[in-house]
Predict the 3D structure of the following.
Amino acid sequence: MKKIQFLLLFFIFFVSSVQSAKAQNEAAGSGIRLFFPGYANWNVLEEGKELVFTLRAAGGNGSKFTFAITQGRIEGMDFDTSGYFAWKPEHDFVDRIAKEKAVQVVFEARNEKGETASQTVEFKVRHANQPPTVGELKTWYVGYNTPSRYKIDSDAVKDEDNDPVAFSFTDQIPEGMQTSAQGELTWKPSLTQFNALKTKPLYIDFVVEDQPGKLQNKGRIRVEATQQDLAPEITAVPRDNTVRIKENETVDIRFYIADPNGDDDVAAFDFVSTNTNVPKTALQRNTNNQYEFIWKPGYDFVKDPFDTTAFQITFFALDKSNKRAETKINFVVRNTVNEAAKDQQYYTQYRTALVRAWDLLEQLKDKEQDLKRAYKRAKKGKTHRSIANASLGAMSGLAPVVIQRDPITQRSISTLGGTAVATIGTLEATEVIGRSTKDLVDRLNYIIEKKNELQTKGDIFARKYTLKSARRSRDFTRDLDDFIALLNLKGMVALELDAGWENKKQATDKAIKTTFKDFSALDEATE
């Protein structure tokens, strides 16, 4: 038993020894180490400053090493197989707002035995503010008594960090010259100043400063009197490359033409449009150097079914030597509803309905007067007794009978002979001709009822839609139909209204307003 335990312990010791030797061999094969610069923060860089070091390696079973970057290489990094590394980050590598940017690079070393080792290094690049640079500026040529504008060229004045810059000028600038922080100068030289420029050029010193770093640089602008024939300059106010308007909307653009050789050198100013519907009369001349483009497209400018029409107008100026300057403006005209025509249409419907109501009211008033006169005639019939028609049957004759008892009181009385039966009554005159006063009263009441109803509904309709804005609502069409339906009286035949009746009065606005107090003519209505 002890012998077996001894053998088991020996076997375990043997296996452990083999595994330990194998681990040592593996460690010896992968024991390459990389050596980077040993000073603190060696991997922290600034924009515009170069980092240079040589990578070294040791360990493993070989003695010769080659180096490479396997991941994270940035454009501008210089690294060869001998381990030489050089990198100078550009000034726009780090955003000026972020201030810092981290880059991870994987370096690898390989010996002749094929053994490799790699290590990841994180470089931290910090933003370094740089002052603006001022290159060569073009000369500013000015003319006598001519407004001239100069803009410092953004290609000549740059900031490598893309920082915004501001310009400031010394106090030694000519009288009348104006400057701005955006690098813009305006000047209209007087005769004395212009003559001085002909003798000696003028220099304008300025300082350009980046923001918010406040680093500065200096520059100088050379100003000379123009001696050559330069092209005119066009300034549009407002300075919009694209003008968007609606139909029936007025566009007003003012143009100022400046010629470095003097105002008298401007020969012509005109325009060419890709849309032939723009009239030439839209361009108006105020002075030889000031024009105004005033144009209002009509409601039919944009042809249906299009929503918009786009076109371009090129405005150009010519001097006496045919030198040309031009500016192009894009126009977009949107289709729109003719509100004036719509309002006129709604007003016509509104007024026509009230005219029809007024006309019908006048006819009802005439009919009412006729019925009242007929009723009065009927009322008079009660004071005149008549002999009504009788059932004459077999009438044999009709002769006067003389009463002779008393000659003094002798009278002649007409009598009916035969079998006729005479009826003496107190019938009214209308009943004599076969008409009833009840029918007159019924029709008169119906006339009055309809007249009052029509007057009430007409007053409501006239008052509700006296304004343009009210007639633009959706309810107008529905109420208009309801009001017109009211004019079609059901009892037209029973009322015995004459279809050919003509109103002797004229349907003027005053007449309509007299009947419907809240009626308002189109030129009186407000929004």
In short: The chain has five domains: 23-126, 133-225, 233-334, 341-382+428-515, 389-422.
